[in-house]
Design brief:
Length: 183
């Protein structure tokens, strides 16, 4: 059950004047800057591939692109808005609402400001939050380095790293789904 303060934040999140991307972190609405061409296209290609997987595997889950809100109840986080996601929960009665619960698979495609020591700490903290909320696999897409760091809740201390020429997966969150790192 959401508290009144959390409900107020969620209501504010629905009505950000510029309809910008934001998440609820430490009881505040935190705006997220727009992304550039490379990370935007990387996330788009992942969503398109997940959408095709959804079409070929009906009833197994839903592909979502950037700026979709997933409401969670963690001590320091009330929502996520990944760059791409696979969600296996219910869509809810009103499909205009944010989704309840974390996606089983989340993708964070690094933007220009997502590099350096401070950004690394923030990304690792967000991955920890995803796992605490129930996400099983998180892709940290290094758009400058051309690699995909695949973090799994079953082995949260060390990612599998896939590079150009390799095929990354999201097992066990999205069974049988793969994508080349080059794509």
């Amino acid at each position: 059950m959401q508290t009144t303060a959390q409900e107020s934040l969620v209501e504010r999140l629905y009505h950000i004047p510029e309809n910008g991307k934001a998440e609820i972190i430490r009881g505040e609405i935190v705006r997220m800057s727009p992304t550039g061409a490379r990370p935007g296209r990387a996330a788009l290609k992942i969503v398109l591939s997940l959408s095709e997987y959804e079409y070929l595997n009906p009833g197994t889950g839903y592909a979502f692109g950037d700026n979709v809100g997933f409401l969670v109840t963690l001590p320091d986080r009330g929502s996520f808005s990944p760059d791409a996601a696979w969600y296996t929960g219910p869509l809810g009665e009103d499909e205009m609402d944010f989704l309840l619960g974390a996606p089983i698979f989340a993708v964070e495609a690094r933007s220009k400001g997502d590099y350096g020591p401070k950004a690394e700490r923030a990304i690792l903290a967000k991955i920890h939050d995803y796992f605490a909320a129930g996400t099983v696999v998180v892709w940290d897409v290094d758009t400058l380095g051309g690699s995909v760091n695949v973090w799994r809740s079953s082995m949260p201390a060390e990612p599998n790293i896939y590079r150009a020429g390799e095929i990354a997966n999201a097992e066990p969150a999205v069974p049988g789904w793969t994508m080349t790192v080059a794509a």
